Fold these 3 entries.
Entry 1:
Amino acid sequence: MTEPSEPPAQSEPPTGPAEPAAPAVPAAPVKRRRGPGRPRQDEAEDGPGTQERIRLAAREVFAERGYDKTSVRGIAKVAGVDPALVHHYFGSKDDLFAAAIEVSMEPALVVPAIVGDGPEGIGERLARYFLGIWENPVSRAPLLAVIRSALTHEAAATVLRGLILRRVLERVAADLDVPDPTLRAELAASHMIGIALLRYVVRVEPLASADPETIVALVAPTLQRYLTEE
């Protein structure tokens, strides 16, 4: 006859104070991905200083590499910012190209200076302004980029039309209140761009080596007639 098995031993209840529960570990914060063109909050708050740094970097890179070989990522690298910040401030590559070239031309400042007190002498003021920005090595480099790129890229041609024709010459002609201001602006633009191509891009002599004052004296009467005579 088998003996009954002993019941399993029961553990005695613990004596003394209970140990405190381990503190709960907070969950790791969820990282939200930024959509295109949306910089971090600290990046967006950098303000006009960062925007100007990007614009100047774009002018440098476009002048060095031309329109087709320049990328937003390359400009961001030179400016020391995230590419998303470039899109945030300037949108597309075309918009950034226009903004970079506009730094050299400053149409908002030059139009009142060219128009001056009236039509008298406007041809000379326009010729002197145009040659002045081309004679300055800092502003010449990006303008060379836009002239060269405009021959093969429609986006660059659009920038050239927008800045030189629409933003400067058409506004000058409109302020003079003459008939056919658009046609007159285009004639003046053809004269100025032709000089830029032959003097600074193709470098045809003796135009390439001519004194700027000599060019101003010869060109100013024609520009005056385009913009003022009815």
Note: The radius of gyration is 33 Å.
Entry 2:
Amino acid sequence: MSVLEIDAVVFDVLGTLVDEPAGLRAGIRELDPSLDGPRTEQLLSLWQQHIDREQRRILDGSRPYLTSDALDREAARLVADAAGVDDPAAVAALALSARRLPPWPDTVAGLARLAERFPLIGLSNASRTALLGLNAHAGLRWHQTLSAEDARTYKPDPAVYQLAVTVSARPPERLLMVAAHAWDLRGAQRVGLRTAYVARPVGDPPASSDRFDLYADGLTDLADQLGKI
């Protein structure tokens, strides 16, 4: 890889900066406090599989675009039905749990440290409305946040990454995409962005064939590495 010359850092949010499964688990437990651990995990998997499947259907053109809010409501309904809960208010509260996601322990301090040197751009599949609540709940601070809703598609569609290129008005090779998902970084690479994989307990680890510019154990490690560039 050539020497990194970075003008701005672009962050994935879900899974990379916030613990999405933990927030959804909390919402599922609120839906039915009697659920045991294994059943909670089954319902969490049901939610995640629905979101993944429906975003893929939108990406391949077999379903019209819907915001993440609409998909979350669908997922919440599926989970509530599987749990035997038919209270509309409880289902609505469950859907909103996708906006109440806790940050990883190093997230807030890591963003603050990186923001001293670089403009920070959040780039998420979450809707604009969801991002507002999510950022506030997790205490995320940005110079700019961008939603895939603005491109009416989802990552890894190139149009989503192009949002960051357009807003920053910088060449893609001077933007660093940071994510805990190798599929997300591969999408960014296709648009020409530089890439940094950050390891998290959840996410999509790199394959042996992946070649990212940086590999970090967390945001502190990432900030340390960027500080040497």
Note: The chain is about 50% helix and 10% strand.
Entry 3:
Amino acid sequence: MEAGSRRRIVFWRHGRTDWNAAGRFQGQTDIPLNKEGHRQAVQAARRLASLGPSAIVSSDLARTRSTAEALASVTGLPVAIDPDLRETNAGQWQGHTFDAIRTMDPHGLHLWEEGDVHTAAGGAETRLDVAARFHRGVDRALGAVPADGTLVVVSHGGAIRVGLAHLLGLPHTLWGALSGLSNCSWSILEERRPAADGTLRWRLGEHNAGTLPAPVAVVEG
């Protein structure tokens, strides 16, 4: 990180659900965490608490709210709710496995899996749509974070991936270079010096992490 303390954003994906386990496209269907998902959230929350978060904001869907509450219970912080941090609205694809979607809409799924940012998932939202609203939600939450603070954004795999690409300023053709996040894993953006026009700029510090870096012990001899 550049000299001086700067803000960080931790993007944390929710814990496991039964639809995750079944390989179903959840989208904005409000599926709760299962027993394993709750366990993952509690375990990850203990690690993330050590980063000293300043604020927590979550998508309004049950699986993210439950995940966020696990961190809130450790840190004592309130959880702000923002629907702009929801997962992609996948329209008619929601609730179906990818094999079923491939039968229903082979051309649309092919374009979407190839990373086309203009293809609407299930006829609903494009990746550009999701990235734009996700960015708005992050900007609103950053307003409550001090200059050296850490914001935890609890959201969804697809939304986080396109949100990261958008915030990093990656060309659309490179959005697919970022992998998705595993359940209850996180990625961290570190604030850089603003651009000449005052635009916030970020660098990727960690991606799809599940543990925190250990201090390096220097031993002479």
Note: The CA atoms of residues 9 and 151 lie 5 Å apart.
